[in-house]
Structure formats: structure tokens, C-alpha cells
């Protein structure tokens, strides 16, 4: 993967919504690319998290790519069980193909 256009588009969205860019990071793990969405699931900004996931999903759908596997991580806090992180897992080939399609659209 040369340039990560998926991350660039997500970063622009975060900037426009005044959300700290540290809530999303992308890592390669084996044959997968994982988009982590974390630190955004409090009662004050839970809707921002849902909107962000919907935004990412819409990007993927617009380039007609395969879906990803989504996993939710929960944390047990003094306020009860809360969503701690959502991970979107892509096969590396699917991620790179989606990234390339987005790059082509942006050109």
C-alpha cells in the first residue's frame, strides 16, 4: 500500500467534525488491515462514533467493494459495560483494492 487514501478521507471527516484524529488508526496484522475506532464511545459523543462508522461504510459501498468484518470490544467500567472499540477488518487485498479505487476517484 503506497498512500492510504482511506485514512486521508477519514482524517478529513474527523477534522470537519472537530474529532481528535487519534480516535482512528489503521494497522496491518497478518493478512488483514484493521481500522480501529476507539476513544469515541462515551455517552456524550456516542452518536459521533455511529456517524463515523456509517461514513466509513458509505465510502466502502461507494466503490462497490467487499464488506469487512466488524468486531465490537466492550469494557466493564464503574458506569457499566460500554463500547471501548470497534474494529473493521479487511483482507489486505480487498483493502488495497478499495484504497486504489478511492485514489482513482480523487484524481
What does this entry look like structurally?
It contains 3 helices and 4 strands, in the order αββαββα. The chain has 107 residues and is an alpha+beta fold. The protein is globular. A 4-stranded antiparallel sheet has the order 1-2-4-3.
- Determine the structural class based on helices, strands and strand pairing: alpha+beta
Major β-sheet, in short?
4 strands, antiparallel
Which regions contain 5 or more consecutive residues with pLDDT less than 50? Answer: none
Beta percentage is: 25-35%
Report the average pLDDT across residues: 87
State the strand order across the main sheet. Answer: 1-2-4-3
State the helicity in percent bands: 40-55%
Which word captures the global form?
A: globular
User: Distance N terminus to C terminus?
Assistant: 17 Å
Index terms:
3 helices, alpha+beta, 107 residues, 4-stranded antiparallel β-sheet
SSE map:
Blueprint: H1 5-16, E1 24-29, E2 32-38, H2 46-62, E3 69-77, E4 80-91, H3 92-106
Antiparallel strand pairs: 1-2, 2-4, 3-4
Helix pairs in contact: 1-2
